[in-house]
From TrEMBL:
Example GO biological process: protein ubiquitination
Organism: Rosa chinensis (China rose)
Source organism phylogeny: Eukaryota, Viridiplantae, Streptophyta, Embryophyta, Tracheophyta
Record's GO cellular component terms: cytoplasm
Name of the protein in question: RING-type E3 ubiquitin transferase
Keyword Glycosyltransferase: no
Stored Gene3D superfamilies: Zinc/RING finger domain, C3HC4 (zinc finger)
Keywords: Metal-binding, Zinc, Zinc-finger
Example of a GO MF term: ubiquitin protein ligase activity
Domain RING-type: 159-202
Length: 211
């Protein structure tokens, strides 16, 4: 398994639509963590992505003049706050200093507090591209449950395969894997006919023994 992290940080070109009661000197810092799972037979070959999902998002309003002052206690406080957040993500700890450095590279040259700064973290896992489908019996035996009985559905939740929402209300049936991740039935059935791993956590469904 090949694993690495991609870090991107930049100031956006469009102002945030609603500052609310936040002071004019405050700038919005946004974090988005992605999980990409794919495969390729060798480093020279293109990647075939199996799953691309958003694992988490976080936003902070920070005082721009205060955080740009490299000797201020405020900058140190913000650094610790960001480090605490990163510790809750799946991004490897050794990458945290680099992420914070890239954020401050953008913050230190920012002029307008109206334009948010967006930090995107891509946690990438690549496996050999030889895919093995799940068994027909294991696919047919998957549990179908109503959304309102899951007790974990978030507002605006989407299927991690097609990225479309669950639009038919709380009574809609979804298909749940043994690992407890759930998807549109058509999406996960098609997926498992190609790849026996859960798109989100790589839980392994049963496969036919090799002959």
């Amino acid at each position: 398994m090949e694993m690495y992290t991609i870090i991107e940080a930049q100031q956006e070109s469009v102002p945030h639509p609603d500052r609310g009661e936040v002071g004019d000197n405050y700038i919005l810092v946004k974090f988005t963590c992605y999980k990409y799972i794919g495969g390729r037979p060798s480093p020279d070959c293109p990647i075939r992505w199996d799953s691309q999902i958003i694992e988490g998002e976080k936003q902070y309003w920070v005082d721009l003049p205060g955080i740009k002052n490299v000797t201020s206690p405020y900058r140190s406080i913000c650094t610790r706050l960001i480090a605490d957040y990163l510790s809750t993500t799946n991004v490897p700890e050794e990458e945290h200093p680099c992420i914070i450095d890239k954020l401050f590279e953008v913050l230190d040259v920012a002029v307008s507090p109206d334009l948010p700064i967006h930090v995107e973290l891509f946690d990438v896992a690549l496996h050999p591209s030889y895919l093995v489908p799940a068994t027909r019996e294991s696919i047919e035996g998957l549990e179908r449950v109503r959304l309102d009985r899951l007790g974990v559905l978030e507002v605006g939740a989407t299927c991690s395969i097609c990225w479309l929402g669950y639009d038919d209300g709380q009574e809609q049936l979804v298909t749940r894997l043994p690992c407890s991740h759930y998807y549109h039935e058509d999406c996960i059935v098609q997926w498992l006919h190609i790849n026996h791993f859960c798109p989100m956590c790589r839980f392994a469904m049963p496969t036919q023994p090799s002959t």
